[in-house]
Amino acid sequence: MGSRMSTISRKNAMVINFAQSHAQRRVSIGFSCTVSEIQNIGHSQRISPWEVILA
Fold first, then answer.
1. Highest taxon of the source (predicted)?
2. What is the pTM of this model?
3. Residue 47 CA, distance from chain mean position
4. Segment 22-49, tens digit of pLDDT
């Protein structure tokens, strides 16, 4: 029973790790897109990047 539980928890840990890394990749891609948009808009409107991120 104990060995079976450890196998299940190991599987869950792998799934969680995969989900976290996938989410981080999506966030970083979205963040880089947002930064490029801010750089394009910021020249005309003078918005600081932190205001957009915190909004």
1. Eukaryota
2. 0.34
3. 23
4. 777 777 767 776 777 767 665 555 656 6
Domain count for the chain, please give it: 1
Instruction: Answer whether 33's CB lies under 8 Å from 49's CB.
Output: no
Residue 30 lies in a domain: yes
For residue 37, how many C-alpha atoms fall within 13 Å in the half-sphere facing its CB?
8
Site of tokens 């966030």: 27
Query: Could you tell me if residue 13 is inside a domain?
Result: no
Q: How far apart are CA 26 and CA 1, in angstroms?
A: 38
CB burial of residue 6 (10 Å; 0-12, 13-18, 19+): exposed
- Residue 48: give the domain boundaries: 23-55
Residue 53 lies in a domain: yes
